């Protein structure tokens, strides 16, 4: 799996998209305070959790109908639009909308990337394969918030954080357009092994 372009492309997509979601999740209380003058950041954390749960269910169903790649691209584009729009979120209702969309698109990642990994690389080594893919989430979760902190320290605000994250999400969407599933031997190998074991 790790010798394929598809793995590394998915890995980069996962890292960029997880980073964007985790930046908002990690900073939502401060964002609400800075941009909206609100001291109720804990409520936005709850909204993120609600969006997260809903996003997993909805995008899982959508991807079964239109395909994993198409759904991932839609999620990345929606994430990018939301990140650009965060610059303008300065009131309670706007921040509520932004938090729910962030939660939903972040939750979508945790439904779509395991399913895509299993679809593309088979179930034979699914635990190990997704464990390797999931390292992208860890890298995104480490690098994204640290990058955000440095940019905020340098600029005094979140605007550039949103812009950089949105650009990375558009890169992820671009990778989604050019990355196709590997040849079917991964799936065929699993089927053959199961038949042989009967």
List the helices and strands and how they pair.
Layout: H1 5-36, H2 41-66, H3 68-85, H4 92-121, H5 126-155, H6 159-178, H7 185-197
Helix pairs in contact: 1-2, 1-4, 1-5, 1-6, 2-3, 2-4, 3-4, 3-6, 4-5
Structural class: mainly alpha
Briefly note the CATH topology name: Growth Hormone, Chain: A
Number of strands: 0
CATH top level?
Mainly Alpha
Give the tally of structural domains.
1
Description:
With 198 residues, the chain is an all-alpha fold. The chain has one domain (15-187): MFS general substrate transporter like domains (Growth Hormone, Chain: A, Up-down Bundle). The protein is built from 7 helices and no strands. It has helices spanning 5-36, 41-66, 68-85, 92-121, 126-155, 159-178, 185-197. The model has no long low-confidence stretch (mean pLDDT 89). This is MFS transporter. It holds the Pfam family MFS_1. Residues 1-198 form the Major facilitator superfamily (MFS) profile domain. Keywords: Membrane, Transmembrane, Transmembrane helix, Transport. InterPro entries: MFS, MFS_dom, MFS_Riboflavin_Transporter, MFS_trans_sf.
